Amino acid sequence: MDKASVARFLLLALLWGSSFTFIKVSLEGLTPGQLVLTRLVLGAAVLLTIAAISKIALPRSVQVWGHIGAAGLFGNVIPFLLLSYGEKTTGAGIAGVLIGASPLLTLALATAALPTERATPRKAVGLGLGFIGVVLLVGPWHESLGSLSGRLACFGAAISYAVGFVYVRKYLSPLGLKPLALAASQLVAAAVLQAVVTPFLDWRVPDLTGSVTFSIVVLGLFSTGLAYVLYFRLIGDVGATTASAVNYVVPVFAVLISVLFLGEHITWNLIAGGLVVLVGVAYAENRLGQLRKKNDPATAGAVR
Fold it and tell me: Is this structure's pTM higher than 0.85?
């Protein structure tokens, strides 16, 4: 990667990694439903603005919007809510590391649900390692990580992300939609769905202190909206394989930022579990082999 791509890569990891701390701070003045709705509306506004400037049209088919709605439900509404409820009783750092299991869960679901994904010994070993790492991360014996229900809610968010990724791959990727159009449409659909359910969730008058306002604005505009743009730019510049490696860096930023700004503590099982999950994902995906192929001029074009 050139210097500009490295800068975008690290900025994306920072934006996604910091989102867990911003969720934690936003919950001081907003309910989970209010937080998620605001986050989705702000993120959708960013992407719709960029799509309009770029003259990228959104899909018009009712059937396509049905699939987009399902993708928004599993890829945004459910995980955002679970994370928000989970972080009420558990730390931002542990939430970030648990979400780091999403690629592993996606691999497992894709192997089971997609005919093109075959089960292999490598995947079996990687998934087994990842399962051990998740058990270490959830750590039901470790009270300092917050409530067990909070940790399970965050892990549920990782599962929902995985379902969303597989759904998009199965039903939306074959349609050949432009990435920005798909991302903007998904956030719009998610915002509409969240607006429908928010009145039925717990509600209180928002306490918009300076820190709460700053956190929710950054979370919506940057960690939700701008982050998509950076991610798709990275895919275009360095390929999907290298761009997706950001998932290995996000948990590191999540932990570091939560320690620096929230004073959270790092426990042995947070480090051990996170490392085991990442090793499991890397082995199951044959990450090193893929990167070697990507760097081979003869095969570089195929990776994009």
Answer: yes
